[in-house]
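Q&A log
Question type: sequence-to-structure
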Amino acid sequence: MTIYITMHDAWEVEDAANQENLTNQLLCGRMNCELCEREVERLTVHHLIPRQKNGHHGPKINICSACHRQIHTLFDNTRLAQELNTPEKLKSEPQMWNFLSWVKKQQPNKRIKVNRKRS
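Response status: OK
Response body:
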């Protein structure tokens, strides 16, 4: 399930500074991904501790769909919950760092193809 950010979501943000920043971005029609920092039209909500690991009410970040798909392609929920549960840890993980270095150079309106995990 993908959750997109709307104006209502901006008012649900508990931190006042983040609320103001998200509201301003929504009013301008463009928002920045918290991982790749690209300016995109829509963001998705990524639970830093997956909901399946009791992270429903835990910390979240707003990221583009390319970064979100890449995270869930590379890592299972156990690893995300135990090891990669902050934006900094996600950014510094070698596979994700390589992806972020590449995707930052891509046009924001370009659909990024993510290679699925091999079984």
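Response note: The helical segments are 7-12, 16-28, 65-74, 77-82, 87-92, 94-103.
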